[in-house]
Structures are given as structure tokens and as C-alpha cells.
Amino acid sequence: MNRPASSKPPRDRSGITRVELLTIIGVCLAAVGVAVPTLLSSRETSRRTTCLANLGQLSRAVIAFDQQKLFIPGLRNAHPNPSVFNSGDSRPKGAVSWPVLILPNIECQEIFTLWSKSSDSNSGAVPNSNPAPAIAIFNCPASPGEFDTQPTLAYAGNGGVGVIAKAQSKNDSVMLDTLGVLGGYEAARSSVEFINSADGGANTLLLAEKCGPLYSPLAFYDMAPRSLAAPTASTFSPGIWFSPGQPNTPVPAFGVFDGLGATLTSPMLNSQNPTTTLDSAATRPSSRHPGGVLVAFVDGHCRALSEGISPQTYGQLLTPNSRSGEGRMAFTAGGVEFLPAEPLAESAL
């Protein structure tokens, strides 16, 4: 006797079971867990590579300027327009910092003419008091400026100890005030040749990032520095970032500007002290790259410095001529006084 055919349709077994679905989801999550860190690491590697390339190009521009003019551009320099008279720091916008002087050497001659051919010789400011245009090489991709159209600057020059007791010395600083102040302190300059004859360009910092989380908003490359005779935290700290013209601060510099015998708190790089004192992120290199700060040396080589470097190593890298016995780099950290330690071991960096 034949069984009657079932009226139910045959079961479709081509779908995915719950177990199979869960397995697929697990595999996808595992793949994402592997891919995301790899993607983030790849992005950081790309940013770091670009930042190092920026520092390399900027350091070569500074070295080229030194070869042309026989001195390293300072934190404060004469206005490119010779008609701007700035005796005794009389003009509010009568000086420029190091980034402006190297513009021709980074293929920005046209921007440089905003100063060199400025018709506003009365004050020295860029014509019509407008901010200068943005320049990509002045910005680290890990620390973009607030607006792409502004003249932000993510890098700073080695100011060493700056001006102390109405004096500055090329034994202590790489970038100096090349103007000086009438009745205040004398102008001073350093050079690659001098540094190579002293501690050596490979052992002396030239540029460093200065764009960490606490250093915001960024500095401006078109700023017009005033006298550095009595520096305060505001001299180097971020100010009102959107300015209708050239602000006087912050000076794009890093160093030890606290005076003789200062007591510094670690870390030397990526300081967590708020930018209300000189012993803070206001005067130290800082970065958004994990683990340290990218820097360029006077000989042009670039590398990362660990944020764990000691105060003594930091002081040694700032000082162009620690062997002279004439330097004034004196500070303490954790009860330990700064003493030149030569040569610097790779493990110290």
C-alpha cells in the first residue's frame, strides 16, 4: 500500500543555521580586531613619516640660510623690508622669527615678498594686517591647525636659555635674538660652523615639535616677536589663535627659560604642567605622536626622542657648547644638577 504524498513543501536546507551565523560573526569580529589596530598603526606611521619629512626639509632650509648668510636665523630677526626701522624695539611689528627668514628656502618666495616688499613700512606688518597664508610643511599631520587657512606652526626652534640678566650667549642657545635691544642686551648670532666646532651638530637640537594636547591653539609662523629681555609664560604660550594680523606671541621656541638655577619638573618632553608657568608645556617640546617627540638636529638628521629622557640629557641637547665652561645652562631636576655628559649614549635618547 502506497503512502499518500505529503502536502507539506520540502524543507529548504540551503539557509544558514544559527550556529553558522554566530561563527561568521565571530570570524568578522576577530578580523576587525586585527584590522583596526593595524589601520591605526599604519595611519600613525604615515603621520610620523610626514612629520619627519617636514622637519628634515625645515632643517635643511635653516642650514641653507646659514650657508647663505653665515648665521642661523634667530628667534627674533630684522624685518625683511630694510625700510622698516626698528631701533630699540620701537615697532610693534618690526621683527620676524625664524620661519619667515627660511621661506625662500622652502619654495615660498612669493609669500616671503609679503614682508620683503611690504608697503606697510610704518609698522612692518604684512599688508592690510592680514594673516599670512597657511603652509602645509609648517604643520604636523597629527596636530592639524584649527583652520587650514591660518598660518599655524607646529614646530619650534632651540632657544636654549634665552636672555638672562640682560645677556645672551651662543654657548647656551642655537637660535638667539639677532637684533638685541638698545639699552637692554646685545644682539647675538650662532652658526652651524660654530656648533660643529663645539659640541657638534649631531649632538645639538635645532628644531622640535611643539604641538601637544596642552599646546593649543598652535603658534603662528607670521608672528612678530618683541624684546626677549623679561620672558614670561605668555611669551611662549598659546594666545588668541585667530588674529587679524601678526601677533607678538607665542615665540616659536623651546628651551629652559626659567633663569639660572631653575628647578624643573619631569618629563622634559610632553610636559603635563599647564602653560601658565615657564616650567611647562609653554617652553618644552611636545607632540601628539605616542611615546615622544620628533626633532631635527643642527647637522640635519631627524629622529624621535623618548619622552623619558633625563633633564641632564635634555640640557645637553639644548647646549651648543657645553665644553666651553662659559655656558649658563644651570638647573636642577629631582635634586640633580645639570652636568654635560659627553658623548651621549643612544640609550639616553
Q: Summed up, what is this model?
A:
The chain has 349 residues and is an alpha+beta fold.
Walk me through the structure.
The chain has 349 residues and is α+β, with helices and mostly antiparallel strands. It has one domain (41-348). 23% of the residues lie in helices and 11% in strands. It has six helices and twelve strands. The chain has helices at 18-69, 98-101, 109-116, 192-197, 233-236, 311-318, and strands at residues 77-78, 95-96, 152-153, 155-160, 205-209, 219-220, 253-255, 262-263, 292-297, 302-306, 331-333, 336-337. Strand 9 (292-297) and strand 10 (302-306) form a beta hairpin. The longest helix is centred in the first third of the chain and has 52 residues, at 18-69.
* Average pLDDT score: 83
Tell me the overall shape.
globular
Which H/E pattern describes the elements? HEEHHEEHEEHEEEEHEE
From the helix content, strand content and strand pairing, which structural class follows?
Answer: alpha+beta
Q: Strands across the major sheet, in which order? A: 7-4-5-9-10
Nearest-angstrom radius of gyration? 27 Å
Distance linking N and C termini: 93 Å
Query: How much helix, percentage-wise, in residues?
Result: 10-25%
DSSP strand content = 5-15%
- Number of DSSP helical runs: 6
What about the largest sheet? 5 strands, mixed
Give the total of beta strands: 12
Low-confidence stretches: none
Q: What number of domains?
A: 1
